[in-house]
Amino acid sequence: MTRTTIFAFFLPLIAVSTGVFLTSAEDPHKKFKGDDAAMMRLRMGELCTEEGVYFTGSGNCVNCHAPDPAGEALVDGNGHTVSPVVDWQATMMANSARDPFWKAKVAHEGLVNPEHRESIENVCTACHAPQGFHEAHLTGSAGPNGYTMEDLADDALGLDGVGCAACHTIDDINLAGRSNGDLPINPENVAWGGFENPWDGLMSGQTGFIPVYGEHMRNSEVCASCHSLYVHTQDLAGEETGQVYFEQTTYLEWVNSAFNAENVQCQGCHMPLVEGGAIAATQPNWLFPQRFGKHHLVGGNAFMLKLMRENAVALELSASPAQFDSTIARTERSLQNESAQLKVIQLQSPAGEWAFEVEVKNETGHKLPSGYPSRMVFLEFILTSLSGDTLFHSGKWTQEDGVIGRDVTYEPHWNEISSEDQVQVYETVFGDVSGTPTQLLERASLLLKDNRVPPRGFYSNHVTYDTVRFGPMAELDFDFNHYRKEDGSTGDEGSGTDRLVYRITDVSGSKSVEAQVRLHYVAVPARWVSGMFEYAGQSEAIATFESMFNATDRTPVLMKAKSVNGWMGYIGEVEQWRVAPNPVADGKQIRLIPPAGEMAEEVWLTDANGRVIREISVHEAMNGHHVSDLASGIYFARIHQVDGDWQEVRWIRM
Ligand code: HEC
Ligand code: HEC
Ligand code: HEC
Ligand code: HEC
Ligand code: HEC
To answer: Is 516 exposed, middle or buried (0-12, 13-18, 19+ CB in 10 A)?
Structure first.
C-alpha cells in the first residue's frame, strides 16, 4: 500500500542544498513570518517525504505544522514560533540515523564481533532508525538477520531518524514495561497527540494519518521503550553468556524519582507547554489555541550538535546552521540552568590546612548524567592564595589530555580529595566478563563504577533498584544521596546529592584563600572513543567520525561555578564574627574572621564607648590591619554585613 500525497497548498519543489539558507544570526526559533517563514518551509522540503505503510516521512507534516507565513498558528504569546518541525529538525533525535558517532559505533561493534554483525545492527537500528526498522519488520521485508545498516543506507524512512511518525504512532499498550525500541506501532495510521478533540478535516486526507488524542502522549511511558536499553552480554570470544546488562536506564531512573510521584513527566522538562496554548496547524485558518508541548527535546549533547552543524553537508543533514545554533544554545542553557546546583562551604581545619565541602545536587529527572554511558560530569576545584598563586588544582581539563589526573583504568569515586591527581568524575564504567573496563557495548557485564548523581527521591529499596543501582564505591559512600540532619549527622535517603571534602595542605601560609568550584559536562570524552578509532583503517564510518571528532572543539560545557573565601582560623558552625589574634600585641595586625556564609560590607573600629575611631576597608579588615597606633585597652569592630545585619566584636589591644 502506497499513498499519493496531494499538496494542495504548498509545494516544496526545489531540492535545496544544505547550509545555504538561514545562516544569519537570526534565531529560527523566534519570530517567523512572511518571507522568512516561506524560506524555512522551502528548506524543510529536504525532509523525507517517503510514504510507507506504517510510517510517513517528517517532510509530509511540513505543510501544516511548519512556521506560518501569516504568523497566526504555531506561535506562543510573544509571536515566537513553536513549530514542532523547526524545533525538532536540529535535535539529536531528528538526526539519530545520520549521527556519525552512532554509525561509527555500530561499525565498531560489528568489527569486533563479525559473526554477529547483522544481528547487532538490527538491535541498533530499532531506536536510532525506528521508522525504517519497524516498517521493514511489520511489512516482512526485513532480511533473515533483520534490518541492517545496509538496509538503512538507502531507506529514506529510516534515515528520517526518530521522525514525527516514530513517536506519534506509538500505541498505548504496556508502554512502561518495554525496552530496546520495542514500539507498539498503530496499524491504522493514527497519529496520537496531546490535546483532546483535534479537527481532522485536512490531515488524514493529505497524509493518511488521523490526528487523535492519546493520554499516553502526555506521559513518560511513551519515551520508555527507546530510553531503556539492555544488551545480551557476550564474552571475549563473542559467545552470549546469557546475562542481560542494563546499559541505559533513563526511564527507570525517572520511575525511581520524586518527579514520578509529583507527576513531572519527561515532557514536563523536555517538551515544555506553551503558556495559553497555541494553534496547532497553519490550516484551516479558523483553528483555536490548544494545549501545546514544544518539541525542544534537548539533553546535554551540545558537542555532537556542534560537530553535526560543522559537517551538515557531508552528513546530508537538513537543518540549517542557525537551527543547530539555536538547539545548541538551548542545550547549554539547560545544562547551566536546569541540571544541577553547587554549594561550597569552608570547614574548620587545623592550621596549615584548608578544608572545603562541596555539594552537587542533581535537578534533572534521572541520574546526572544519564543516557549513553560515555556521558560524564566532573568537578574542578581551584584554591588560590590572596596574591593569586594557585595552591591546588584538581580537575583541570585540556583538549589534548582531557581531565588531568583521571586514572587510566577509571577514576575512583571520592569522599575526600587531597591531591591533584584525584578528581571527582560522575560517570558509569562497565567491565567485560574478565572485569576489564570496556567501551564495547556488547561486552558489558560488570558494573565497575556508577556514581552518577541520582535524582531527588531515588531510593535503594525501590523495585527498579536492581537495574539502576549505584556502583560499588558510591554504595559505600554513606552520605551519597542522603540528606544531612540539623546536628550534622547523616539523614534520610533520597537527597539527590553528593557531598565531598577537599582538604589541602597550604605551604604558603596564606591567611585567606579563594576556592573556586566548577561543574563541567562532557558528552563524548576522547578516552571513550580512542579504542574505536584503532579500527579506523577498517571502517569508513569510523575514519569519518574520527576526523570530524578531531576537528571539533571539545571544551566541556561549564554547568555551574561557585567561589568562596576561606579564612585561617575559621571555626565551623559559629554565628559570630571573630577578631584574631585577640588580644593583639604591639606591632601586630588584627584580622576579622567571618561566620559561615557571611561577608562584610563595611567595617569600623570603635573604642569602648562606641565612638568610631576609623573606618577600615573590608579587604584590610579581612587580611590584616595595623593597630600599633592605638593605646592599650578595649575596642570593638563594628561590622555591617552584606545581608544588612550588624555585628560587634570586642577585642583587646595589649
Ligand atoms: C533502546 C533504544 C536504543 C538502542 C537499541 C540503541 N541505542 Fe544508542 N542511544 C539511544 C539513546 C536514547 C541515546 C542517547 C542517550 C543520551 O543522549 O545520552 C543513544 C546514544 C547512542 C550513542 C551516542 C550518540 C551521540 O551522538 O552522542 C551511540 C554511539 C550509540 N547510541 C550507539 C548505539 C549502538 C552501537 C547500538 C547497538 C548496539 C545502539 N546505540 C542501540 C538508544 C538506543
Ligand atoms: C493538511 C494539514 C496537515 C498536515 C499535512 C499534517 N497535519 Fe497534523 N494536524 C492538522 C490539523 C488541522 C490538526 C488539528 C488542529 C486542531 O484541532 O486544532 C492537526 C493535529 C495534529 C496532531 C495533534 C493531535 C492531538 O489530538 O493532539 C498531531 C500529533 C499531528 N497533527 C501530527 C501530524 C504529523 C505527524 C503529520 C505528518 C505526518 C501531520 N500532522 C501532518 C493538519 C495537518
Ligand atoms: C520524541 C517523540 C516526538 C517526536 C519525534 C515528535 N513528537 Fe510531536 N509530540 C510528542 C509528544 C509526547 C506530544 C504531546 C506533548 C504534550 O501535549 O504534552 C506531541 C505533540 C504534538 C502535537 C500536538 C501538540 C500537543 O502538545 O499535544 C503536534 C501537532 C505534534 N506533536 C506534531 C509533531 C510533528 C509535526 C513532528 C515532527 C516534526 C513531531 N511532532 C515529532 C512527541 C513527539
Ligand atoms: C523511537 C525511539 C525514541 C523515542 C520514542 C524517544 N526517543 Fe529520545 N532518543 C532516541 C535516540 C535514538 C536518541 C539518541 C540520538 C543520537 O544521539 O544519535 C535520543 C535522544 C534523546 C535525548 C538526548 C538529546 C541530547 O541532545 O542529549 C533526549 C533529551 C530525549 N531523547 C528525550 C526523549 C523524550 C522526552 C521522549 C518521549 C517524549 C523520547 N526521547 C522518545 C530515541 C527515542
Ligand atoms: C526535572 C526535569 C527532567 C525530567 C522530568 C526529565 N529530564 Fe531528561 N534531562 C533534564 C535535563 C536538565 C537534562 C540535561 C542535563 C543532562 O544532560 O543530564 C536532561 C538530559 C536528558 C538526556 C541526555 C542524557 C544526559 O544526561 O546527558 C536524556 C536522554 C533525557 N534527559 C531523557 C529523559 C527522559 C526519557 C525522561 C523521562 C523518563 C526525562 N529525561 C525526564 C531534565 C529532565
So the answer is: middle
C-alpha pair distances (Å), 117 with each of 238, 240, 321: 11, 14, 34
Q: What count of other Cβ atoms lies within 10 Å of the Cβ of residue 156?
A: 16
**Percent of the chain scored above 70 by pLDDT?**
94
Q: What's the 538 CA to ligand 3 centre distance in angstroms?
A: 40
- Rounded Cα distance, 53 and 189, in Å: 8
Taking phi over 0 as left and psi of -120 to 50 as alpha, with beta for the rest, 494 belongs to left
Grid cell of 270 as nine digits: 523536555
Report the alpha-carbon distance of residue 493 to residue 461 in Å, rounded: 10
Q: Contact, 467 vs 246, CB < 8 A?
A: yes
And the C-alpha cell for 406? 583521571
pLDDT over 70 at 80, yes or no: yes
Cell matching residue 635: 575596642
Determine which residue's CA is closest to atom 17 belonging to ligand 3. Answer: 194
Three cell numbers, residue 619: 579587604
What is the identity of the amino acid at 461? Answer: N
Q: What are phi and psi of 93, to 5 degrees?
A: -65, -40
Task: Give the residue, by CA position, lying nearest to ligand 2 atom 27.
Answer: 193
- Which ligand lies nearest to the CA atom of residue 130 in the structure? 4
Closest ligand to residue 206's CA: 2
Cell (9 digits) for 261 = 510521584
What's the rounded Cα separation, in Å, for the pair 375 and 371?
Answer: 7
Instruction: Indicate whether residue 321 lines ligand 3 (CB < 6 A).
Output: no
Q: How far apart are the first and last CA of the chain?
A: 99
Peptide bond into 454 cis (omega under 30): no
User: What is the predicted pLDDT for the residue at 46?
Assistant: 87
Q: Whose CA is nearest to atom 32 of ligand 3?
A: 84
- Under 8 Å between Cβ of 94 and 61: no
Q: Give the binding-site residues of ligand 1, using a 6 Å CB cut-off.
A: 99, 101-102, 105-106, 109, 120, 123-124, 126-128, 180-181, 226-227, 229, 248, 299, 301, 304, 371-372, 375, 441, 523-524
pLDDT in tens, 584-593: 998 889 999 9
The ligand whose atoms approach the alpha carbon of 269 most closely is 5
Q: If you compute the radius of gyration of the chain from its CA atoms, what whole number of angstroms results?
A: 29
Q: All 3 cell numbers of residue 543?
A: 575514519
Torsion of CA 159, 165, 168, 174, to 10 degrees: -60
How far, in Å, CA of 285 to CA of 147, rounded?
42
Q: What is the pLDDT of residues 122-131, one digit of tens each?
A: 999 999 999 9
Sign of CA dihedral 37, 42, 43, 49: positive
Joined together, the cell numbers standing for residue 92 give 539529536
Quick check: 375 and 369 in contact, CB under 8 A? Answer: yes
Cβ of 455 less than 6 Å from ligand 5: no
Among residues 597, 617, 609, the alpha carbon closest in space to that of 648 is found at 609
User: 29-43, 292-306, 341-355: which range is least confident on average?
Assistant: 29-43
Using CB atoms within 10 A of its CB, is residue 603 exposed (0-12), middle (13-18) or buried (19+)?
buried
**In whole angstroms, what is the distance from residue 23 CA to residue 41 CA?**
15
Closest ligand to residue 220's CA = 5
Q: Is the CB of 377 under 6 A from ligand 5?
A: no
User: Based on the number of CB atoms within 10 Å of its own CB, is 78 exposed (0-12), middle (13-18) or buried (19 or more)?
Assistant: exposed
88 lines ligand 3 (CB under 6 A): yes
Q: What is the pLDDT of residue 3?
A: 40
